[in-house]
Amino acid sequence: ILFPSDLAESNPLTYAREVLKRFMRRAFRRPATDDEVELMLAYFQEVRPTFASFEEAMRETLAMVLVSPDFLYLVEPSFGESRKLNDHELASRLSYYLWSSMPDDQLFELADSGQLRNPQKLAAEVDRMLDDPRSSNFVEQFSDQWLDLAGMNRVAVNPEYYPTFRDELKPHMQRETQQFFNEVLRNDLSALAFLDSDFAMLNQPMAEHYSLTGPRGIEFERVALTTDQHRGGLSS
Fold first, then answer.
1. Which of 107, 147, 208, 224 is within CB 3.0–4.6 Å of 91 for a Cys-Cys bond?
2. Which residues, other chains included, contact 127 with Cβ-Cβ below 8 Å and sequence gap of 6+?
3. pTM for this one?
4. Read out DSSP for 139-191?
5. Distance from CA of residue 135 to its chain's centroid?
6. CA 99, CA 96: separation in Å to the nearest integer?
7. What is the SS3 string spanning 92-149?
8. Are 218 and 204 contacting, i.e. CB atoms less than 8 angstroms apart?
């Protein structure tokens, strides 16, 4: 945050302004306006005499940035206001939807240059982000909300009817659904696979639960099914 610069010694106020400008750009997920930067700089000047060092005063000022609504929320057009999202708003929507996190440097650069809304650039960015390991957040959170997978923990299975069922299977069952969704997404499969497919995503506990031959480890793998093994899709 406090990047190396000769200004730190020669002109601390100008250095503080540059520190704030860089920090607020990341905190707000967009370039901060001159007025926003000057407001925080004025606060820094106000509190600087009460702290023993530049670093302590800057820490206090950065804390003020982090309680700003522009950091805590994704600030977008007001209700009833009709306009297109700008590139930085679009970058934040993409990153929090697909990664559950802030935009990376490449998204920032495309937004800064005004290229992100170009259809070809946008499609390429979506593909890049889905190929990134961070997209696992999208897979887990979207499928959890879509299918209410947490509801599995609210279901009590009657041991009189299902004597072989163990509660330890529940997290594996949740993970099975997430892995199935992931397989459809990553391989661009038909949405009909959710209803009927010729494969299942299994690990050893789930394969044993379904009385199928499958993986011998805890990791999930794609397992081909025969026509008499009616386990494909999510309807099963």
1. 107
2. none
3. 0.73
4. HHHHHHHHHTGGGGGGPPP-TTT-TT--GGGHHHHHHHHHHHHHHHHHTT--G
5. 7
6. 5
7. HHHHHHHCCCCCCHHHHHHHHHCCCCCHHHHHHHHHHHHHCHHHHHHHHHHHHHHHCH
8. yes
Rounded-to-integer distance, Cα 116 and Cα 121, Å: 6
Position of tokens 């609210």?
154
27-34 CB contacts, 8 Å cutoff, 24+ apart: 27/65, 27/66, 27/68, 27/70, 27/71, 28/68, 28/70, 28/71, 29/74, 29/88, 29/91, 29/92, 29/102, 29/103, 30/88, 30/89, 30/92, 30/111, 31/88, 31/112
pLDDT interval class at 84 (50, 70, 90) = confident
**Residue 26 parent element (H or E):** helix 12-28
Strand partners, 142: none
For residue 107, report the phi and psi dihedrals to the nearest 5 degrees. Answer: -65, -40
Dihedral over Cα of 36, 39, 45, 51: its sign: negative
> Which residue reads 């009657």 in tokens?
158
- Structure confidence by residue, pLDDT tens digits, 150-186: 888 888 888 888 888 888 999 999 999 999 999 999 8
Angle at 99 between CA 173 and CA 128, to 5 degrees: 110
Tally helices (H) and strands (E) across the chain: 11, 2
Reported as a single tens digit per residue, the pLDDT across 25-82 is 999 999 999 999 999 999 999 999 999 999 999 999 999 999 999 999 987 777 777 7
